[in-house]
User: Fold these one by one.
Assistant:
Number 1:
Amino acid sequence: MVNDKNVLTDEIIKLLNGGTAHATFDDAIAGLPTQHRGQIPNGLPYSIWQLVEHIRIALWDMLEFSKDGNHQSPKWPDGYWVKDEAPENDEAWDKSLNQIKTNLAEMIDLVKTGDLFTQIPHGDGQTLLREALQAADHTAYHVAEIIIIRRLLGTWES
């Protein structure tokens, strides 16, 4: 007999990792030329760097909210978007990417071990299931934007 919770957990993890129906975060940034991290194509409001940082901040916030009743979310919307169009240096870029990977792994561990259905005590109806699905959906949405920017910059090979 199939364990429904295991099936659901496995599907959430697939969704968090991305790639089942679309490109992953790692796919979207692979081979990105350094000089394109901070470019903003004509008519768009942000750069790839700003999207990467937005993904990092939002994922961190959803993770921390899911596990820490004392967590304070950034002020919306300013606290979720950086003003700098480009990272200060390669170290800042790598630090952001590493935090995304670390927080994603921690969210996956929380999904594996946590109660998906009980409301988070310090929330207003949220569950771990909702936070994990929101994290996956949010990241996928912005991964698509990264790919669009790369297409506009001529740096995406599908």
Note: The CA atoms of residues 104 and 138 lie 12 Å apart.
Number 2:
Amino acid sequence: MYKITVSQKGQIVIPLEIRKNYGLKKGDQLAVEDNNGIITLRPLPKHPFLELRGKYKSSSPTDKLTTALIKERTAERSREKR
């Protein structure tokens, strides 16, 4: 059991060991529940796409494929107009 103190602004600090155990990082969200006098903090699931943010550089193969697709569609439209 850990003892924590509520600040004047209503903030608390979750002990480091608990943050590590649950992989909590800056910006993660927790659900707060009041169950008959028992306050429960529960980590909310992280959005899978947000987990990928920043993992790939802009020069990824996907960008190359997107550029190729745009060129192909542009050429296709030009052929259709003829």
Note: The chain has one domain: 16-81.
Number 3:
Amino acid sequence: MSNEQTTKPHYPVIVIGAGQAGLSISYFLKQLQIDHLVLEKNTLMHGWKNERWDAFTLVTPNWQCDLPGHPYDGDDPKGFMTRDETIGYLERFAAKVNAPVREGVSVNSVETDADGVYQLCTSHGDFSADQVVVASGGYHIPVIPRMAERVPQAVFQMHSAQYKNADQFPEGAVLVVGSGQSGAQIAEDLHLSGRKVFLATGNAPRVSRFYRGKDVVEWLDDMGYYQISVNEHPLGKNVRNNTNHYVTGRDGGRDIDLREFAKEGMELYGLMSEFDGENLIFQPNLADNLNKADATLNNINARIDAWIEKQGIETEEGPSIYTPVWELQQERTSLNLADSGITSILWCIGFRPDFAWLDAAVFNGQGHPKHERGVTQQPGLYFIGLPWLHTWGSGRFSGVRQDAEHLAHQIERYQAQVKSGANAKDAVTA
């Protein structure tokens, strides 16, 4: 190794990202007494503090929060933490872990040298490491379609990552594009604030908040769903592409029913596909989107019914099937922007990953890393905190602990191989 390389600060492990995933892996590395450094381009819990709206709540009950050494510590386990309560929970976790974090350090590139050692170029100098854990998540670049460039400048546009509350928008109606978890909840938030809302729906499914006397999450936990690994799931790794079910923890938790919003004056459309300079163009699939979302809700409830019957569980509430409270009379595929009263568009169509800084042959055609429970085919390179890394809870507070513990032991094993004299590039993680 050259003199230039030996002058760089070297660590056995460098973790990139100091959210709950990065701090979770740091927790276990500290337990194993493995020297490491955590690099964070912003500040601890930046996303939670700066990229959540004011009325945000968790959509999973508080009892599912089980970070390493830090299970839920409040007095409402069946409730749903607000944005501020979630930040407080995470700050207490960070204080417990006391990870070796350097904040404000952007990682510009990561590559391996001839010896298989990782070379990191950052905004605060160069580092090297035997192993690297990428804990920066998979939601990096907000998706805004090219059609947005053709919308008149007089129309205010924003991505969901920037949304805080209705006061950010000028007077007038708001078009929310996307009905996934964020889109559905933000559309409700704007609707409750008194705004006229137009909602361009997608194919996101929905789920009941409560059913037959319990939170549906509690039923699914009893049924073992959250313990199923990605390799055991009927969809296999394709489940990672699924859109999350929309539901809310707001005001103690409730269903989100877009049909109910329509009854109250929200205007619903199918998938938005184009803006032709004057008209917003939508696919004629609103009825299909609503019907499929309801079918998913009914299917999940039917599985719970079957579980209740199989286990002989006594419940006060019997089986039920959701009956639509509003029916579409006619598909509308065009809306004149000038005549609609829409003065703002909120894009809620997700994010795409950006790992361009990481020089490693571990990505698929969509830019997502290929791995087995966070372990890639490149020796010493790992990912954590991604949806369905291993189970449903991998990208949430409920499953990251198990993933972090698993990876920490993989890292320990690999480190032992490197210390035994094997080249890093030749050491193979078992």
Note: The chain has two domains: 3-140+353-419, 142-347.
Number 4:
Amino acid sequence: MSVAAGNCIDELNREWGVLRHRQVPADWPEGGTLGEVFGRIADDPDRLLGQLLARQAAGDRLAARVVLQAMLGKLVLLAARDPQHSIAEYVTECWLQICRYPLARRPQRIAANLALDTRRTVWAGEQPTVSLDPQVLNDLAHSAGPDAITVIRNATRLGLIDRSAAACLVAVYCLGLRSHEAAQRLSISADLVRWRNARSIRRLAPHAAVLAAA
């Protein structure tokens, strides 16, 4: 894995270094911190991953984030064996697989299923369900506010995205830069630009009404 490709994993691990100390919501079936829940997954993977995916299906993105963290090791191995696709492509696709995982139909071997589905989709060359076309954020802006830059500013102020994610969105969706051009300006990899933008769009879309009120 190249240093540039590794930036995606570094970013996730830095984020997890903060999240792991957070207490889980009171209505989670497992108590403790996110890190403690994560640490129990290896001993009872299908039960705990199933609980997290069920919460994700109800709109709990924090639960989905724990599942993604649990999958990172497998994703790194898959990308290391694949000379054609980047780790960021695997991470983005795995996130999408987590968000649409058919838990009722496939309650067993969840981690293996996620890894296989991710690899199959990446190798098939399918486009992710989250479009990275600049029109996406413009459409969100139309429903949430006067323009894309206002949406990004409001989202940052409300804590829906951080400044690094906002910078990537501005570069691509407001300045019209391509991913590699934005990467040069921000001193990161193009894969990380694409991954941050895909994650941010998924995070912002459900909050259009909140952004409009802001």
Note: The CA atoms of residues 146 and 175 lie 16 Å apart.
